Amino acid sequence: MEGGYHRSIGLFYFCGMEILIQNIKGLVQVREKSPRWVAGVDMAHLPVLENAFLHLKDGKIENYGAMEEMPLINADEIINASGRFVFPSFVDSHTHLVFAASREEEFVYKIKGMSYQEIAAKGGGILNSAKKLQQTTEDELLERAMIRAEEIIGFGTGAVEIKSGYGLTTKDEIKMLRVAKRLEENTPLRVKTTFLGAHAIPKEYSDRNDYIKLIKEEMIPAVAAEGLADYIDAFCEKGFFTPEETEDIMEAGKKYGMRPKIHANQLHISGGVQVGVKTGALSVDHLESMGEEEITALQNTDVMPTLLPGAAFFLNMTYPPARKMIEAGLPVALATDYNPGSAPCGKMPFMLSLACIKMKMTPEEAINSGTINSAYAIELQNDYGSITKGKVANVFITSEIPSYAYMPYAFGANLIDATILNGEIIRSNFFSIPE
Ligand SMILES: N=CN[C@@H](CCC(=O)O)C(=O)O
Ligand SMILES: [Zn+2]
């Protein structure tokens, strides 16, 4: 067995560890061959193997099957999961989890009746977060983001996308993205990064074109030179960036190898969906405001519609029409949008509950959305998002629950009892972790 140094906790660990989880009540999202996504009526199907075993070796899924067919396995660690379900870890494909400070003063304004746009116009919102982030050092930001990373691991997340967009100057955007990269080095999370310089226009720009020029001519090349971003994003919304500006910025990013992922149709029908389709975006995200035309535009494309019900919940807005999208044959992905302004919550199981309760998705559809489909939304579907031989050994074990549907049903409950990432036991509260 080979040893190694644990990046996050500074402890020696056995990276060649073999783990056998046996007597699993239900092994969820078992796919012999991983699809790139599931769409339309197929979203209602969630493959679950009852009374199963799962064998993890060298950080990968080695084998799984029915208990009565389990071969002899010489594992270092044997976990008895009777009464429990094992899920592939969630993939959270849209977050802003690097930020300097929370914004609960705006929360109170919202309670008193101010809208998201009114708060932004008063210098709150994204510009408020940018001001605080500019005054925070890279190391301080990392320290704060590490706490959130540990938090989401406890909620069952194993891979995450993190955006910039609270820097709004070249040096501060780079600072945010460096922190996101350092999170991957310092935690067991798989991290994908997105450059979101086009999140808001800073106050000091009387001509918005000057800021857009800065994004295209200075920020994008600087971010690319350090290899800091996989994707490029813009907040395509009234009062933020127009569809034409969004398209221009997406095309500029593409020249540097960054594929678009767009904030689209959150507050209005913004044209963001059509720009996403036109620029070959990997995903269009939010989609609270969708007409027939937007749904039709997404059909027969490779763009993943990504729903962020935590933002609609927090802002008390209409939820995306998930049923209409699924009935139109589209896939949908789910993510948290974890950020200090519109969704201060990184808990994927709660997103599943909101998907079911508020968007009328079934538990099967919600689980497919937060695993295999959200993996596609950050191009990780070949390695994450399902229990498939050869994929990364990222799983969690639930507490003793009656069914997998209990996960979205018991909203807010903490139902995750153990987490294994990259084949390492990260935490457990029902068996002791080997020294
Ligand atoms: N909508 C734009 N960006 C974030 C919110 C940012 C903020 O208010 O800080 C979102 O995805 O909801
Ligand atoms: Zn967002």
From TrEMBL:
Signal peptide: none
Keywords, in A-Z order: Cytoplasm, Histidine metabolism, Hydrolase, Iron, Metal-binding, Zinc
Keyword Metal-binding appears in the UniProt entry: yes
Cofactor mode of binding and number, as noted: Binds 1 zinc or iron ion per subunit.
InterPro entries assigned to the protein according to its UniProt record, in alphabetical order: Amidohydro-rel, HutI, Metal-dep_hydrolase_composite, Metal_Hydrolase
Compartment(s): Cytoplasm
Binding site for 4-imidazolone-5-propanoate: R103, Y166, H199, Q266, S342
Catalysed reactions listed for this entry: 4-imidazolone-5-propanoate + H2O = N-formimidoyl-L-glutamate
Gene3D superfamilies with a match to the protein in the record: Metal-dependent hydrolases, Urease, subunit C, domain 1
Single GO MF descriptor: iron ion binding
Positions of Zn(2+) binding: H94, H96, H263, D337
GO biological process: L-histidine catabolic process to glutamate and formamide; L-histidine catabolic process to glutamate and formate
UniProt binding sites for N-formimidoyl-L-glutamate: Y166, N339, G341
Record flagged with keyword ATP-binding: no
Protein's pathway: Amino-acid degradation; L-histidine degradation into L-glutamate; N-formimidoyl-L-glutamate from L-histidine: step 3/3
Enzyme class: hydrolase
Binding site for Fe(3+): H94, H96, H263, D337
Cofactor(s) needed: Zn(2+); Fe(3+)
Pfam families hit by this protein: Amidohydro_1 (PF01979)
Function noted in UniProt: Catalyzes the hydrolytic cleavage of the carbon-nitrogen bond in imidazolone-5-propanoate to yield N-formimidoyl-L-glutamate. It is the third step in the universal histidine degradation pathway.
Similarity comment text for this entry: Belongs to the metallo-dependent hydrolases superfamily. HutI family.
Name this polypeptide is given: Imidazolonepropionase
